[in-house]
Amino acid sequence: MRLKELLIQYELQNDLNHTAMAQKIGVSTSTYYRWINEESTELKKTTLKKIAQVLDCDIEKVLNDDGECVKPILGFAKAGYDLFAEQQIEGYIEVNASDAKKGDYFLRIQGDSMEGSHIYDGDLVYVQKCDVVEDGKIAVVLIGEEATVKKVRYKKNLMILEASNPKYEPKYFTPQEIEEIPVRILGRVRFVRTDFD
Fold this sequence. Notes:
Layout: H1 3-14, H2 18-25, H3 29-36, H4 45-55, H5 59-64, E1 68-78, E2 89-96, H6 97-102, E3 105-110, E4 124-129, E5 138-143, E6 146-155, E7 158-162, E8 171-173, H7 175-180, E9 183-193
């Protein structure tokens, strides 16, 4: 796990901003921002000790642990067609080394259009960045400035985005519309994660 990920995770869990976190550790805000921007990654032992006390963990062990990896949760993706694709980090999720190689980030689903594929409102989909997917694969697609999760089909010269809930009609895009709107594939959905409270 990287220091940036560890600090942001702690902030999110404790409802803190960067300034408050810097004060809590006892460093200047500018120093803390260098850590977050990964401009300064070589920390003194005394600084690591301060961070370890605040986070209540063995900081060196956590930072050197390559067995697990964390991936960010980036905003929301609508399992529909009308939500702006926000890219605010909501948090991080640990994945094992095998899954770490399969994808790049998680997106939280809003909507019911992919229920037939067992992707429900509130679920997290694990996404592998790419700009092309095979016919029939589920992908995160940007339509203008709106992100959606749909099954991608190709027929003749059309790109078709299909919901797996029959109450939603497929959307068809010509090569010209793909270029002008634009319509872009952001990544392939590798798996879905459902958390039960």
